[in-house]
């Protein structure tokens, strides 16, 4: 309707795309040797767990070859 602009309490949000800072953030701290070793060990543990579960779970997923033959109970063999 009318191009009337009303003041809003958060007018600075609308101008945020035009704002440029001249302050650079501080450089990141380097990880210590212990932190890097901990990350490697955590990653290795996760990968080993996934591989181990795959190795243990694979035999359960293979089709059983004896399932094709009809099973006979021991009671039917003894007469």
The biggest sheet, with number of strands, parallel, antiparallel or mixed sense and barrel status, is:
none
Structure class: mainly alpha
Beta-strand residue percentage:
under 5%
**Rg (C-alpha, Å):** 34 Å
Mean pLDDT: 78
Poorly predicted parts: none
Portion in helices:
40-55%
The best one-word shape is elongated
What would you call the quaternary organization?
A: single chain
Topology as a string of helices (H) and strands (E): HHH
Number of strands: 0
Summed up, the helix count is: 3
**Ends distance:** 100 Å
Describe the structure.
Helix content is 47%, strand content 0%. It is mainly α and 79 residues long. It starts with 10 loop residues before the first helix and ends with a helix.
Summarize the structure.
The chain is 47% helix and 0% strand. With 79 residues, it is mainly α.
Provide the fold topology.
Blueprint (H helix, E strand, L loop, with lengths): L10 H4 L18 H29 L12 H4 L2
Descriptive terms for the model:
79 residues; mainly alpha
